[in-house]
Amino acid sequence: MLQHRCLHHPIREAAARCPECRQFFCRECVTEHEGRVICTSCLKKLTKPLAKRRFTFAPFLRTLNALVGLVVATLCFYVLGQVLLRVPTDFHEGTLWERQVFDEPPNP
Predict the structure, then answer these.
(1) What is the count of structural domains for the chain?
(2) Could you say which residues of the chain have pLDDT below 50?
């Protein structure tokens, strides 16, 4: 191992040999994956099919998220509108503060 050099960095000594491509690499060029030390290019090859399978429902999930967000926003605005409709008319006219405590209740 001391005689071998990194494939990407010829100045550095090799620290590991990739079990997939059988090339030698320094410590910066390899990573541990599922209990094995493997180079980055082989790691990309091994994980690429998993990434494709994982995103098969992505468009459906994005559409579902958008619809749920739209429904939640609609409900929030509906509730806010109902609260604003229940505010007394005197409040909107600016005369709410002129009423006395013992005056008659505001008009609906």
Answers:
(1) 2
(2) 51
For residue 21, what are its two tokens? 């491509």
Quickly tell me which residue has 């008319």 as its tokens.
Answer: 89
Q: What is the pLDDT of residue 14?
A: 87
Would you call 34 exposed, middle or buried from its count of C-beta atoms within 10 A (0-12, 13-18, 19+)? exposed
Kindly state whether residue 25 falls inside one of the protein's structural domains.
yes
Range of the domain at 70: 58-98
Is residue 2 in a domain?
A: no
Nearest one of 18, 41, 17, 15 to 28, comparing CA atoms:
15
Per-residue pLDDT reduced to its tens digit, 79-96: 999 998 888 777 767 776
Beta-carbon contacts of 5 under 8 Å, excluding residues fewer than 6 positions away, are 11, 12, 13, 14, 24
Give the Cα separation of 70 and 24 in Å (integer): 54
86 located within any domain: yes
Name the H helices within the chain. 40-54, 58-85, 89-93
Tokens of 70: 């739209």
Which amino acid does the sequence have at 46? L
